[in-house]
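Thread title: Can someone regenerate the structure for this chain?

I was given the following input by a collaborator and told the matching structure tokens would be attached. They weren't. Posting the sequence so someone can regenerate them.
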Amino acid sequence: MPPSPPRGTQRQVRASVYFLHGEKISPAPRTVTPPATAAGALRALLAGPSRYERGQRRTTAIPSGTALRSIVVCRHVATVDMSGRYDDGGGSLSMRARLAQVVFTATRFPAIEKVRFKVDGKPVTSFGGEGIVLNGPVGRADFEELAPLVLVESPLIGDTVRMPVRVWGSANTFEATFRLKITDAAGHTAADVYATATSGSGTRGTFDVTIPYRATRSGPGLLTAYWNSLEDGHAVTEDTVPVTVMR
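Best answer:
Regenerated them for you:
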């Protein structure tokens, strides 16, 4: 039997919080303390991107000073109660983005499939000045336009990867196919492979692939998810994840 942790300490677990890269959802890693992992992840989300993440153009639409009042999970629906700052200011895109950030962060946990919102303890049926209708729980599919066509959920920004690297996430591309490229610290293409999701062409599916690569130098690199235009064959980038690539 493994030794018990020192009194007053708890094992920490890895979670994902969802910021914005451009106008699309982008996950980042955080460590939270169980058992309130979803609550911990949402509080980490509200704290905003780190300096490194901001340097990689990760942003948030959630107003500074927003606080999580409570989260209650029942039958795979999380009721999330935010402070009044949550619906302050912003146009339609900002309002939908901040809702999506919370929904994607909460539903990263298997026990949560959808989110119901409250603000200052009151159920939300119309959100913000734009009047976004929230007459029931919402899930990731309700914010499909805010997800890149290829959403990489692992590895995450800042991760260190070794050969072979496992890459997984979701995609909604033509005929469910796309490409994954790994660029090493020397700017060399260490891998460039095709991948296929479980569905596509209007329906988001999942993918999980293991990619062998050959790096010429260890250090800061990039994982790029892209697809080739049917019109002229040029590469259309959907997601980029800065990582440390090890030889």
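Residues 1-5 have pLDDT under 50 and may be disordered.
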